[in-house]
Amino acid sequence: MIKKSGTYGITFNVNLAGSGQTTPAVFEIYANARLIASVTVYPFATLAKVAKIVCLEKNEVLQVKAATTITLYDANLTAARLDSHKHESSSSSSFKCKHESSSSSSTCKKECRKCHEVLGYASFSANNGRLFDPDEFIPLNNEVIAECTDISPIGGLAIKKSGTYGITFNANLQSGTNATFEIFANARLIASVTVLPNTTLAKVGKIVCLEENEVLQVKNATATQINLFDANLTAAKLDD
Length: 240
Description:
The chain is mostly beta strands. The chain contains 1 helix and 15 strands. The strands form 4 sheets. The chain has a 5-stranded antiparallel sheet with strand order 8-9-14-11-12, with no helix packed on it. A 4-stranded antiparallel sheet has the order 7-15-10-13, with no helix packed on it. Strands 4-1-6 form a 3-stranded antiparallel sheet. A hairpin with a 5-residue loop joins β8 and β9. It is globular, with a radius of gyration of 18 Å. The relative contact order is 0.20.
């Protein structure tokens, strides 16, 4: 449930139950009855990826609907508020975007996305899994580039503006053993997560201060080799 109106970075990930799913699955994300995102995930490519910036109102409820019949292991949904005083009205506590126009809500939405396009997103995927050795960094080098982050040549998210960021990480493991992942900003450890077999969606939600030119990377911190299907990392700048 949204407690403050504003601009939010939304991420959603879902892990389908392997051989139990033989057809593509469609998921829809709603704010109350308003559709804000849709994603299709295919069998054996089990980590759905959504990174979206949207305007949400106080008391709206974010929910995820399966638009097809599915067999599901687990899923997660995150929402990080990206704006602060910029959208507050001095005469009213109600939400009012500085770009709001009585004649065009589409203009407001376009301008808001321009001001708050701060959701960085990088992912790795392999069709049949890939083996990673201990202390090997995951080559997160696909997908979305945003205003305050960029894809680093070494694999990961390069921070372009210092500030406070909301970090999420998800990984889909194919190995039959536990796997531990560590998230670094350069040489600084900022988070660690262990994912268990058959519950393959690792879940990290962390708020950290990051400096300009720091690079977010993810390392395999498991003592043994792991077989990884795919993974993704997001960074949403929370301050102005």
